[in-house]
Amino acid sequence: MYRRPSKKQQLIRRSLVLVVMVVSVLVIVASVTLFILGYRLDSINGQLQQGALVQFNSQPTGGRISVDGTPINDRTPAKRSLLSGSHSFTVERDGYRPWTKSLNLAAGTLAWLDYIRLIPIDLQREVIEIYPVATDMKAAPNLRTLLVQTDKAEPSFQLVDISAPTVSSQTLVLPENLYTADSDSSSHLFTLDAWDAGSRYVLVQHQSSGVSEWIVMDTEDISESVNITQLLSIELSDLQFSGTSGNILYGLTDGALRKLDISNETISRALVQGVESFNMYQTSTLTYIGVDPEDKAQRVAGLYKDGDAQPYVLAEAPLNTSLQIATTRHYNDDYVAVAEGADVTILKGRYPSSVNDTTSLQVFAEFTAPRSVDRISFSPEGDFLLAEAGKAFMSFEVEYERLTSSVVNTSQETVQPLRWLDQAYVWSVYEGRLSIREFDGTNGNVIMPALRGFDATLSQNGRYLYAMTQNSSDEYQLERTTLILQ
Known about the structure:
Layout: H1 7-36, E1 39-41, E2 48-59, E3 64-67, E4 70-75, E5 78-83, E6 85-92, E7 99-105, E8 110-117, E9 124-131, E10 136-139, E11 145-149, E12 156-161, E13 168-173, E14 189-195, E15 201-208, E16 211-218, E17 226-227, H2 228-232, E18 238-241, E19 248-253, E20 256-261, E21 266-267, E22 275-281, E23 285-291, E24 298-305, E25 312-318, E26 323-330, E27 333-340, E28 343-349, E29 361-368, E30 375-378, E31 384-389, E32 392-397, E33 402-407, E34 419-420, E35 425-430, E36 433-438, E37 445-449, E38 457-458, E39 464-470, E40 476-482
Parallel strand pairs: 2-8
Antiparallel strand pairs: 1-2, 2-5, 3-4, 3-6, 6-7, 9-40, 10-11, 11-12, 12-13, 14-15, 15-16, 16-17, 18-19, 19-20, 20-21, 22-23, 23-24, 24-25, 26-27, 27-28, 28-29, 30-31, 31-32, 32-33, 34-35, 35-36, 36-37, 38-39, 39-40
């Protein structure tokens, strides 16, 4: 016979149910929190360990992912939580060469393997254009345009549009009134220097009978091109764009760095003295190598920001010691790398606000190359630093503070500087072949024949890689290799 529970029994039952519910919710919340934080149960020792999250992506996408030799049920793009420690990764796709990498993952970290470039097994090449002679080729930063020079004695250039599968080109000719005339046309020398960041303007240097001039060529309206040397009556040994307007530049004259404004026809005071070389970063920050004006026996590496009263010296060394400097910005922090001989120092923080500011930039990392460093450069997005020393190069991953060393295998005595192909890959030409590899030297692939001294570039969608080659008739060919199959 059913006997109705007493109020006390009902209260006990309700309390037990409530306790069970609360405990269950707490267990679920704790489990989800631990899962999100990357904790996993190690099946070998039965212990709970915090792992690492790995983000995968590839070009093209759809690559099959294997971790430590075991396929996972995901294709790129994908993510995977793994126990900390050493792991090997493989990404494969039909028709492409396998991509592999080994990493030591730290607990609680996020590892980005989102730069994977899969290379076709059979590389398809095609000739785009043939030139009887070619002397230079430079790719625009937006990866949509190439500028080909066929004769350095002529002010004529081929503007090649590579933004679509069907390539087109047009001829640009500098007006005769834009440069100093000379009765002997063979004495003219036109040299392509650099594109602006907006991919519209190009710096061209003209030399003739002792005259040296700098011209800003407007590739969209050639009649709007400007001879800076004539306009401002200034002799320059180097010139670089600031921004995308084509009007603001920084130039080097007699060792003095000055700001030039074409639209207002103005020249600034000497911003930095004793400069040997400089590089523009973004629109308002410059790095430079020079001689200390107060001690001619010392070479200095420094920074100058637009609007500052004085430059900021970061390193000093004897004149016989090589100095290199580069800068970038990554995740809201400024980074400056200085190479003094073989020793490389990376500083992190904020650009100094005055010459007396000694706390804004602090030492972040240090390492030593096998020999004196020839060049240092940050990747376009600031993730990696490359330090080149002859055939050896070292790469430093800013986010993970990982340092790796590699060597370019070539019989050539002189090596070509490594150039950034994208945010993680570099390219170079050795023994007449263009090869690409990741920032740390891994996953190297020979892509196509190529000539040294000419630029190479991806198309904007990454499908093609363009380079200049030469055929059996000694003609110059603009060729492309398909990297992403249909």
